[in-house]
Fold this sequence. Notes:
Blueprint: H1 3-17, E1 19-21, H2 22-29, H3 33-45, E2 50-52, E3 55-57, H4 59-62, H5 68-73, H6 76-87, E4 95-98, H7 102-105, H8 108-111, E5 117-120, H9 123-129, E6 135-138, E7 142-144, E8 149-151, H10 153-159, E9 164-169, E10 173-175, E11 179-182, H11 185-196, E12 198-204, E13 216-219, E14 226-228, H12 235-243, E15 247-249
Parallel strand pairs: 4-5, 4-9, 5-6, 9-12, 12-14, 14-15
Antiparallel strand pairs: 1-3, 2-3, 7-8, 10-11, 11-13
Amino acid sequence: xxxxxxxxxxxxxxxxxxxxxxxxxxxxxxxxxxxxxxxxxxxxxxxxxxxxxxxxxxxxxxxxxxxxxxxxxxxxxxxxxxxxxxxxxxxxxxxxxxxxxxxxxxxxxxxxxxxxxxxxxxxxxxxxxxxxxxxxxxxxxxxxxxxxxxxxxxxxxxxxxxxxxxxxxxxxxxxxxxxxxxxxxxxxxxxxxxxxxxxxxxxxxxxxxxxxxxxxxxxxxxxxxxxxxxxxxxxxxxxxxxxxxxxxxx
Length: 250
């Protein structure tokens, strides 16, 4: 298959799926991953798509990073791996909190058949679980249209009325030196409210978030009980977190 034919198929696939990885494209085009990477570099240079780590996404997705569905598609394989591990921690009859993080959202597919109660401020989580066996409790308050989530004082008061066995939360940045950090006060305040009402807090965090620091430092590592991450986490980072007393699943 020549470049022009590969180009047409690559752009069609990216347009339909939003994002795609190199391995999928290599299988689709029946060519090598090296050839696919070379094609993606050329297409990205022409402004026809946006290169990501391990693949590509639509330009419109890359230029609107706040839209929830776009964030959920980034590092999808890593997030799904993390969420499979997280789902194994949930017991029948549990009450769990789920925040509005894009990684936490991908937990939905692995808990649909569990007889549990989910308390969440995430509109996509509610939509995803409405046709499942899960009982859903939507936190009330002001809706952030960009993040598709409920935030604010009333939301925090709602959370304070409930007690959960487990909470599953995301974070924008985590480091041994500074603890947890967020891109906004909204996410930080909801995370704190959830943690206060939960017996055991799980932080779902892909390896790209480890040892990174964001806009707002809001809590020490002691806020959570278990860190679940992916297999791409470097061994020295795993060792450092374990030495710091962090319970880590990966």
